[in-house]
Amino acid sequence: MEQMGLLIVLSGPAGVGKGTVCTALRARMPEIVYSVSATTRQPRQGEVEGVNYFFKTREQFQDMIARDALLEHAEYVGNYYGTPRDFVDRTLAGGKDVILEIEVQGALKVKKNFPEAIFVFLLPPSLDELKQRITGRGTETQDIIDTRMNVAVEEMNLLSHYDYAVINDEIDAACDRIRSIIIAEHCRRERFMPYVTGMKTTIEKA
Amino acid sequence: MEQMGLLIVLSGPAGVGKGTVCTALRARMPEIVYSVSATTRQPRQGEVEGVNYFFKTREQFQDMIARDALLEHAEYVGNYYGTPRDFVDRTLAGGKDVILEIEVQGALKVKKNFPEAIFVFLLPPSLDELKQRITGRGTETQDIIDTRMNVAVEEMNLLSHYDYAVINDEIDAACDRIRSIIIAEHCRRERFMPYVTGMKTTIEKA
């Protein structure tokens, strides 16, 4: 049975390990396509157009904003970054799932523009664990750590806007949970109604 | 994080392979508890009370019906069969998931009495495949096969009352889908709201 692909939005507070989980998931589910962002920043050595980013001029990017061609966008240190809707739409129409890894505020913008996506929130195993991950290299001041922890806790309160939560206690377990969520979403009853209606028509004609 | 267990109701038309899938799932997910039915029929050689069935007298069973102690029940060739609510409730409260394998009409009764259960419908890969499975040993008349096929197609139209559909094309794939549904349901955001609220309280007190 041919199905449309699903957009899975993977989000969570800074330090929770979104990138690590995504890399591990890529290896385990090579059939999934990762959303490619558009940006106005200069390509770095080795970066490939359409693979790492869609590189745009400032004018092109502003035109995309005006045409509502982005699922979300933000400006960061003088450059635009955003998620082109077209790439996602075309991939889903081809029957492939797309994963979009994004911070919490961006995910909420995607939800407004693409409410049918599956929103997954990555949670730390505990606040202590998150603090350790944020403290990381030990180069941050106590003030910065406190601010980041407060932001993380505020963001965790936005869990209510998400469909699923996955605790990132262990990378294999977290990947297995995300994979399960994707498979389960493909098994939702609504997706099978045409299949069953088709069977009914077949037997009535027989 | 300690969670309540989930009741998973696995159903589908006769011939679709519910029993085979359940047996395979048991081997793959030994942590899941299978619902034990109550019955008024006599125990057979080797059957153990509380393992194969809860054996009841007709009076005891009728008393359970009157007390609303069954999630569903039916009479079949002069004997009562039913699903005791108490066994399910106690197992879920202990944090274990319960699987209930049941035909379609029984599942709809369970839905009335236990709407928070997860309802999974097992579908045949095709009508031809279902016909082959129903024809089976080749001892059935054409009339009986036609009737069963019509019942199966009518039952498949009741898919709209279920949460998920799983095509039983290959036993390993079907088991993996059901396992994924169970894991995904444990990741539903609602189940994590207390966890997040707890974190917020911790940091505010700090």
Structure description:
Chain A has about 210 residues and is α/β, with parallel strands linked by helices. Chain A has two domains: about 1-30 and about 95-205, 3-Layer(aba) Sandwich (Rossmann fold); about 35-95, Guanylate Kinase phosphate binding domain (2-Layer Sandwich), CATH 3.30.63.10. Chain A is about 45% helix and about 20% strand. Chain A has eight helices and nine strands. Chain A has helices spanning about 20-30, 60-65, 85-95, 105-115, 125-135, 140-155, 170-185, 195-205, and strands at about 5-10, 35, 35-40, 55, 70-75, 80-85, 100, 120-125, 165. A five-stranded parallel sheet of chain A has the order 2-7-1-8-9, sandwiched between helices. In chain A, helix 1 packs across helix 7 (about 170-185). Chain A is globular, with a radius of gyration of 19 Å. The two termini of chain A are about 20 Å apart. The interface of A and B includes residues 156, 181, 192 and 203 of A.
Give the termini separation of chain A: 22 Å
Q: Flag low-confidence runs of chain A.
A: none
What is the structural class of chain A? alpha/beta
Largest interface: A-B, 39 and 39 residues
Major β-sheet annotation of chain A: 5 strands, parallel
Text of the CATH class of the largest domain in chain A: Alpha Beta
Task: Give me the CATH superfamily of the largest domain in chain A.
Answer: P-loop containing nucleotide triphosphate hydrolases
Q: Helical content of chain A, roughly?
A: 40-55%
Mean pLDDT of chain A: 92
Which range does the strand content of chain A fall in? Answer: 15-25%
The count of β-strands of chain A is 9
**How many domains, in number, for the residues of chain A?**
2
- Output the CATH topology of the largest domain in chain A: Rossmann fold
Oligomer: homodimer
What would you report as the Rg of chain A, rounded to the nearest angstrom? Answer: 19 Å
Please work out how many helical segments of chain A DSSP would assign: 8
CATH architecture of the largest domain in chain A: 3-Layer(aba) Sandwich
